[in-house]
Design goal:
The chain is mainly α. The chain contains nine helices and no strands. Helix 5 packs parallel to helix 7 and helix 7 packs across helix 8. Bound molecules: zinc ion.
Length: about 250
């Protein structure tokens, strides 16, 4: 694989990440995603040349050009994370084509939802539905006809949602489950991803409970764990399957 297309894809992902910050800060408040960003401290509009993903943060040394107040490290981290999410499928498959690009964009949307769920404990349909749509597109481009995977993924969360009447799982988690099935392609990989999500979630939540960072009454954001489980399954799912079904 050539380096230049990969670098361009990485830059494209970083730009998506920059746009993602706008989506995360404005969509939950139902604000328009058009218009230039302002510094949250001094409200001055940020110049176009200060909106280069990751680079601007480094050049400005993490401070606003106008008021000198600190810029949150979340912005460059989300830009970097988005860039990695977008190139990840191409690196994994060893080629860049519409399938790996669509898979990367879907992972970027999934990452946004993970951050939004962690922030506000809820995910907006205005991001969940684009994820479903792009995940469906990637499944079609892969030529995947195993439609049982999204049924298993969505059904798993639907059952919990139905039994708990929406107390354990939100309806948004059902859509995420469907998307996971579409992205991962087989029901085996989908179940592995859900399993890893629960194990990682249980470990992290236990640690947070013991350290009193979380109380038993707190609602737990589950999308970050589903995202982690999905990425982990892309990396080690095949190995785990071979190990379990020799
Ligand atoms: Zn400022």
């Amino acid at each position: 694989m050539h380096v230049l297309p990969l670098v361009l894809l990485f830059i494209f992902g970083a730009c998506l990440g920059s746009f993602g910050s706008v989506v995360i800060s404005r969509v939950p408040q139902r604000k328009s995603i058009g218009g230039r960003s302002q510094c949250p401290q001094c409200r001055k509009q940020i110049e176009a040349y200060d909106l280069l993903p990751v680079l601007s943060y480094a050049i400005l040394r993490g401070k606003c050009r106008h008021c000198g107040k600190k810029i949150s490290i979340r912005y460059p981290l989300l830009e970097l994370g988005s860039a990695i999410a977008v190139v990840f499928p191409a690196l994994l498959e060893g080629y860049i084509d519409p399938f790996t690009i669509s898979l990367g964009i879907a992972l970027w949307l999934f990452l946004l939802l993970a951050v939004m769920d962690g922030d506000a404990k809820q995910i907006p349909d205005t991001v969940t539905f684009p994820l479903l749509f792009v995940a469906l597109g990637s499944a079609v481009l892969r030529g995947n006809t195993a439609w049982i995977a999204p049924v298993i993924g969505g059904g798993f969360f639907f059952l919990q949602w139905a039994v708990s009447r929406g107390r354990i799982m939100g309806s948004g988690d059902i859509l995420i489950g469907i998307a996971m099935g579409l992205l991962l392609g087989t029901w085996q990989h989908t179940l592995i991803a859900i399993g890893i999500s629960y194990i990682v979630g249980a470990v992290v939540v236990s640690v947070l409970l013991v350290r009193d960072i979380l109380s038993r009454k707190d609602r737990i954001a589950f999308v970050p764990f589903l995202f982690a489980g999905t990425v982990a399954t892309f990396l080690i799912g095949d190995g785990l399957l071979q190990f379990m079904v020799p």
